[in-house]
Amino acid sequence: MARRRIPTKWYDEENAPNTVTRRSVMKGAAVAAAGAGIVAGGVTAGTRPAAADGHLSGGFAIPEYDAIIRSMAEGRTLKVGFTPPVLSEFFDEIEHACWRRCHEYTERFGVQWSWHRAAPTGDFDTVEEHFDLIQNWVTAGMDAIIICTAGDFKAMQKVFSDARAKGTRIIQLNMPMELWPIDEVQSDTAVGYNNALQAGFIAGEYIAQQLGGEGKMLQVWGPSGHWAESRDNGLKLALQKYPGLEIVGKADGGYVRDKGFAAAQNLLSANPNVNAVYGENEEMGLGASLAISSLGLKHWDGTDGILTIGADGLRSGYQEIRDGRLTATIDVGTVDQGLESVRMAFELVVLQHTVGRLHNQPTKVVDKTNVEYADAYVAWALGAEDISG
Q1: Are residues 368 and 223 in the same domain?
Q2: What's the CATH code of the domain at 231?
């Protein structure tokens, strides 16, 4: 894939924090949330951060510092492989956020990017393709690989170790690192969030609070694997505090909308009097929402109906929240994960820094009360120009 030069229009060194970022994040209804501190690429909207904060975290320049980094990076092209377990709206948001940071670093430091994207075929069931893909990229001289994989943990660590021994940096993305001993992890770093405490647990808390701690709920869950395990651990931890909230059914929704719809429809046909459906990811949550509509059941209106919640932070999900068909979702930080992954690649490859093994990003429940500001942040990321070949 040929090197592609990135236009240098995104970053405004004269007027930090970046005015493009501020305008994008504070558009429309998001303006009302600015007082609470919306963070976009390292800049809190409506504030001017101190120049010593963050360095590479984005949105502002430190002239003397940037000049030194530019002398190290200018004219260099970083070859990066981006490989999710499946191509989807979720990973598209993350990749666009990666491009946002790439554009910033091109403008600030002169570095160029050779960006490569590939994913296994199928729906989380052909993970062995990741082994060959990584080996091919290492042979091709990739500087860094940003990867999220459904592959076996121990097998993937061996692949990561071999890649690092040949000079390729490995950044794990969106992985439930809380499941594994850190001394067994062979990537350079991992950017994500705690799936148990920052997704499953807060979803369970939200359901319990909305229902007053009592009711019946269904789980539309992913196939057996590390994400399903960790979010289920978090949900169970939350429900320990609410003995009046009972799980009455659970089915595999395959992490995709159509399978989530079928699973939810079967569960709801057998349990039409439930109060809530938790889709482990947002695609399955949206499938459950569609099943509620197709069966003529009532969506949650704040006091009555069936509450639906997912987890991802998709723009399609945000629209369903506006329309009252999805009650809430857990925004697991697609934008922040993308921004941070590229920062880690730059720190590791160009600056040769030692970085932390784990970088958890903020997550939050999104419902009608805050959907506009959450959506504005994702919209800003999706506006990044494609840098792939």
Answers
A1: no
A2: 3.40.50.2300
Q: pTM, whole model, 2 decimals?
A: 0.86
pLDDT means over runs of 10, the chain (389 residues): 41 31 33 33 33 59 92 96 94 98 96 95 67 92 96 92 97 97 96 98 98 97 94 97 96 95 97 96 97 97 97 97 98 98 98 96 98 98 93
Tally of structural domains, the chain? 2
Residue 191's contacts (CB-CB under 8 Å, 6 or more residues apart) are 171, 172, 173, 174, 337, 340, 341, 344, 359, 361
The CA distance from 172 to 160, in Å, is 10
Rounded to whole angstroms, the Cα distance separating 212 from 92 reads 36
266 in the same domain as 163:
no
* Residue 4, in any domain of the structure: no
Question: What tokens were used for 68?
Answer: 């030194």
177 shares its domain with 207: no
Exposure string over 275-284, b if 16+ CB within 10 A, otherwise e: bbbbbbbbbb
C-alpha 386/C-alpha 254 separation (Å) is: 29
Residue 316: give the domain boundaries.
Answer: 196-331
Query: Which tokens sit at 335?
Result: 């934008």
Query: What's the rounded Cα separation, in Å, for the pair 100 and 81?
Result: 16
